[in-house]
Acyl-coenzyme A oxidase (Oryza brachyantha), 669 residues
Amino acid sequence: MEAGGAGEVDHLAGERATAQFDVDHMKVAWAGSRHAVDVADRMARLVASDPVFRKDNRTMLPRKELFKDTLRKAAHAWKRIVELRLTEEEANLLRLYVDQPGYVDLHWGMFVPAIKGQGTEEQQKKWLPLAYKFQIIGCYAQTELGHGSNVQGLETTATFDPKTDEFVMHSPTLTSSKWWPGGLGKASTHAVVYARLITEGKDYGIHGFIVQLRSLEDHSPLPGVTLGDIGGKFGSGAYNSMDNGVLRFDHVRIPRDQMLMRLSQVTKEGKYVHSNVPKQLLYGTMVFVRQTIVADASKALSRATCIAVRYSAMRKQFGPQTGGPETQVLNYKTQQSRLFPLLASAYAFRFVGEWLKWLYTDVTHKLEAKDFSTLQEAHACTAGLKAVTTSATADGIEECRKLCGGHGYLNSSGLPELFATYVPACTYEGDNVVLLLQVARILMKTVSQLASGKQPVGTMAYMGNVQYLMQCKCGVNTAEDWLSPAAIREVFEARALRMAVNCAQNINRAPSQEEGLYELSPDLLEVAVAHIQLIIVTKFIEKVEQDIPGEGVKEQLRNLCNVYALYLVHKHLGDFLSTGCMTARQGALANQQLGKLYAQLRPNAVALVDAFNYTDHYLGSVLGRYDGNVYPALYDEAWKDPLNDSPVPDGYREHLRPLLKQQLKLSRL
Ligand SMILES: CCCCC/C=C/C(=O)SCCNC(=O)CCNC(=O)[C@H](O)C(C)(C)COP(=O)(O)OP(=O)(O)OC[C@H]1O[C@@H](n2cnc3c(N)ncnc32)[C@H](O)[C@@H]1OP(=O)(O)O
Ligand SMILES: Cc1cc2nc3c(=O)[nH]c(=O)nc-3n(C[C@H](O)[C@H](O)[C@H](O)COP(=O)(O)OP(=O)(O)OC[C@H]3O[C@@H](n4cnc5c(N)ncnc54)[C@H](O)[C@@H]3O)c2cc1C
C-alpha cells in the first residue's frame, strides 16, 4: 500500500516535496473525474487487502497451479462482486486490479460484446442474462491455425440443414482448427464461433454463431467437439494464466437460431437474407476491443514508468569528482531523455484513449440510427491507435526494464512479467502491421479523392487544407518558439499530409494500384504512423486547452504535451526534413527545447507518477514501491524463491557431489 502508515519512512519524501503542482488534482485529470479517482481507489485497496489476490509468488508457480490460481481468483472476485453488490464500473475496476489474465477477460470483453453487437434483441434476451450471471462462460473463437489476420480466409464451416433446421459446424482441415481464443482451452462452456455460412449450396462468407462446447453438468467437451490448451507462452507467469485454446468440430449440430442474426439471417427454408447494412459491421467486436486496448496501453506504460521513475529517484551511482554524495540516476540527462518521453507518452495515450472512447460511443449512436458515415473513421482510428500505442508501450516497458539496470531483470521488479503479459497486444486484435496498412489504404483513398474536391472529415479533415500544408514553411526561429501549439500542430499536419501525397504519387507510377500498394507497403506503414501520431499530439493539445483545475496541473500537462510532441520530432526528424516541413536548424532547436523541458519535468517526476494512484499491490514491483525502500524489499524477496528453500540444493547428491569428489581425487593424483 502507499506510504503514510505509522512507522513507515518515505524515502522519496524529498522528491515529493519538490513537486510544483497539486498531485490530488492531477489524479483527477488522469482518472477523468473525482468520482473515477474515488472508485478506483476503493477497488484497488479492496483487492490489495485481500490475501486471495496475492500475486507476488505468481512467476514461480508451475502452469497447472497458476491456472488453478486464476480460476480461484476469478471465482473469488465474482463472489466479492455479488456480496458487495458492486456496480458494473466497480466490478470492471476490481477485475483490473486483480491483474491476472484469465477467461473472464474474454467473457466480458468479447463474448458479451459480440452478442450485444451482432445478436438480435431476442438472442440478447436469451443469452445475455445467462452470461451476466455466469451460468455460462463464453469466449471469442475467430482465429484458426491457418488464418488470423485474413479473416475472410477462415475455413470452419456452418452448413445449414433445412431438414432439421440446424447448422452443422465442421472443421474440414487441420488448418481450420480454432487456435488461440482465450478462455477456450479449459474454462469456456460456450463460444461465439466465426465460420463460413453455407446454405443452398452457396458460401456466404464469415458469420458468427453461438456454440455450446462443454457440458453444463460436468464440463466435459460435448460430442463431436475436441478441445484443449495450445501450450505454454512467453515469460514466467504472465499470459500463461490464460487458457488459449484449440477447438475442432466434427459435424456438430446447433439450432438455426444460434446464428447471430442482427446483420443477416437464414430462414428456416434456408434462404439467406442480408440486412441493408455494411458487411464490415461483422468486425464490430474487434473495433470495440481495439478501442479498449488503447486505454489499456496507457495503464501498462504508466505502470512501467512509475516503477522506473521511483527507482531512478532512489538509485544512486557515481558522484562528483570532488567527492560528496552519489548522484541519483534520475539526474543523469541520458536517463531523463530515455524515461521522460515514456512518461509523457503514458499521459498522451491516456487522453487519446479517453477521446477514442468518446468517438466509439458517438459512432455507436450513429449506427443505431442507421447512419454509417463514420464507420471508416472509427475503423481507421481504432486500428491505427491500437497499433501505434501498443507498439510504443511494449517498447517502452522494455526500455523501463533497462532503465532499472540489473535489478530490472529480476522478476521481483515486475517489469519482465509486465512486458511478457503486454507484448502480445502488438499481435492480438489485429497484427499492428496489418492494422497500419488498413489505415494507410484509407489515407491513400482520401488523397485520391482530394482532386475531385471531396472534403475529408473527422481526423482526416486537415488533408483538405492541402494547398497550404504542401507548401507552408515552419516559422520557428528560437527554441521557445517550439512551445507554440499552433507551430507543433502545423508541422505534424504538414509531415503527415506530405508523406501521404508522396506515397500516393509513387503508387500512381506503379503498373497497377495493387502492385503499387504492395511495393510501397513499408512506406505506407510510415504514412499511417505519421497520421496517427498527429492524432495523438492533437488530442493532447486539445486536452491541455481545456479548463483544468488544480494549482500547476495545466502547466505540467502542457510540459508533458510538449515533451511528447518534440520527442517525436526528434525521433522522426528524417520525415520532417525529407518532406521539407522544417530545416535542420529548426530540428536542432526542437531538441534544445526538449532538453529544457526535461529539466523542468525533473522536480515533478515522482509526483507525476504518484498521480497514477497505483497501489504497491497493483504495481507488483519491489523497485516501484511508493516508499522507495527498495533494498530491504529486494533482499527479502530473494529468499522467497523456491531455490532458497534449503541451503543445499536438490540435485547436489546426484550431480554436484560426484563431480566435486572426482575433482578432489584427480587433484590428489
Ligand atoms: C480483452 C482483450 C484480450 C484480447 C484477446 C484477443 C482477441 C483477438 O485477437 S480476437 C481476433 C482478432 N483478429 C483480428 O483482429 C483480425 C485482423 N484482421 C481484420 O480485422 C481484417 O481481416 C482486415 C481488416 C485486416 C481485412 O479484412 P477484409 O475483410 O479482408 O477487408 P479489406 O481489407 O478487403 O477491406 C474491405 C473494406 O472494409 C473496411 N474495413 C475493414 N475492417 C473494418 C472494420 N473493422 N470496420 C469498418 N470497416 C472495415 C476497409 O477499410 C475496406 O474499406 P473500403 O476500402 O472502403 O472497401
Ligand atoms: C495472446 C493472444 C491472445 C489471442 N486471443 C485470441 C482470441 O481470444 N480469439 C481469437 O480469435 N484470436 C485470438 N488471438 C489471435 C490473434 O488475433 C492473431 O494471432 C492475430 O490477429 C494475428 O494473426 P496471425 O496470428 O494470423 O498472424 P499472421 O497474419 O500470420 O502474421 C505473421 C506475420 O505476417 C505479417 N503479415 C500478415 N499479413 C500481412 C499483410 N497483408 N501485409 C504485410 N504483412 C502481413 C504480420 O505483420 C506478421 O509479421 C490471440 C493471439 C494472441 C497472441
